[in-house]
């Protein structure tokens, strides 16, 4: 059978093809959405993103995940970003703007996207608006994960991640079924190098100084929804659903 893009469709089990077909049919009736998730490290953006992604058939673009992948692969971009990330400071605007400019053009972002961890400076927000303006689109909603700093150290130091899927666990709040292993695949979970109390201090400092002004920037445009990110995950999900309805 003819193959598309190097993939031999005959090799894919029928049940997988049917599942994908049904997903695409369901997605075709969903409205397009272009969302920004903004909040300090540990506020729950990565936890809520997969739920929003599935509900609205969006792509999830987390600049932190993309940069960590570049660091692991030792690409020129990763080599440039590594030291800054380890210190908990922000990498240059040009670097992340370039990544996002390329990523939002992917076919998986056709129905829209969730930007998680971007924009993190007003300059990044202005560049994003410019990029979207050229496409004739704009940001529909900014979800502000508002939370007190005091809660974040426990969240960050207890976080465990399954990098291939982006699933996130917490030793106390959402522990995996078996310690250190992903519930779905049984693969090992990892802790991020910058998820320490020490590096968190710089990350929070960067958030308040450079990223909080981005919330004001979008508030002036009138499309920010406030979430109570200190609430339990299910209650935050309910607030997200209400904000996006
Ligand atoms: P972010 O992506 O904003 O940095 P995460 O979604 O990775 O934050 O959440 C940080 C940690 O806190 C993770 O270990 C996650 O399991 C946990 N967590 C996320 N949301 C909540 C919540 N509402 N209540 C308690 N713990 C949470
Ligand atoms: P995160 O996974 O969102 O916590 O990001 C991890 C690190 O990646 C940050 O501490 C920054 O060093 C870097 N980073 C991620 N996104 C951005 C961004 N939009 N602008 C600048 N630096 C970023």
Short description:
This protein has nine helices and seven strands.
Your description of this structure?
The chain has helices at residues 14-28, 45-56, 63-72, 76-87, 93-103, 122-135, 152-157, 197-219, 233-244, and strands at 33-38, 59-62, 112-116, 141-146, 159-162, 167-170, 224-228. The strands form two sheets. A five-stranded parallel β-sheet has the order 2-3-1-4-7, with helices on both faces. Strands 5-6 form a two-stranded antiparallel sheet. α5 (93-103) runs parallel beside α6 (122-135). It is built from nine helices and seven strands. It is 47% helix and 14% strand. A hairpin with a 4-residue loop joins β5 and β6. With 245 residues, it is an alpha/beta fold. Residues 39, 41-47, 155, 158-159, 168-170, 173-174, 232-233, 236 line the site of adenosine-5'-diphosphate. It catalyses: AMP + ATP = 2 ADP. Catalyzes the reversible transfer of the terminal phosphate group between ATP and AMP. Plays an important role in cellular energy homeostasis and in adenine nucleotide metabolism. Pfam families: ADK, ADK_lid.
């Amino acid at each position: 059978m003819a193959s598309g893009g190097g993939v031999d469709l005959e090799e894919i089990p029928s049940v997988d093809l049917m599942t994908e077909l049904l997903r695409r049919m369901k997605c075709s009736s969903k409205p397009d959405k272009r969302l920004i998730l903004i909040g300090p490290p540990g506020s729950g953006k990565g936890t809520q993103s997969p739920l929003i992604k599935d509900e609205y058939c969006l792509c999830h673009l987390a600049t932190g995940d993309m940069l960590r992948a570049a660091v692991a692969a030792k690409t020129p971009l990763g080599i440039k970003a590594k030291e800054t990330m380890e210190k908990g400071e922000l990498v240059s605007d040009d670097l992340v703007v370039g990544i996002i400019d390329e990523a939002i053009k992917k076919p998986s972002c056709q129905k829209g996207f969730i930007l998680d961890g971007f924009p993190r400076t007003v300059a990044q927000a202005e560049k994003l608006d410019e990029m979207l303006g050229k496409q004739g689109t704009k940001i529909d909603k900014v979800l502000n994960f508002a939370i007190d700093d005091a809660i974040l150290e426990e969240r960050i130091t207890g976080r465990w991640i399954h990098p291939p899927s982006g699933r996130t666990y917490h030793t106390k709040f959402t522990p995996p079924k078996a310690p250190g292993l992903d519930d779905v695949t049984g693969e090992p979970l990892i802790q991020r190098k910058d998820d320490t109390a020490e590096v968190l201090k710089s990350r929070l400092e960067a958030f308040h100084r450079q990223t909080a002004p981005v919330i004001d920037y979008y508030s002036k445009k009138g499309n920010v929804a406030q979430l109570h990110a200190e609430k339990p995950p299910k209650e935050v999900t309910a607030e997200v659903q209400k904000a996006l309805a």
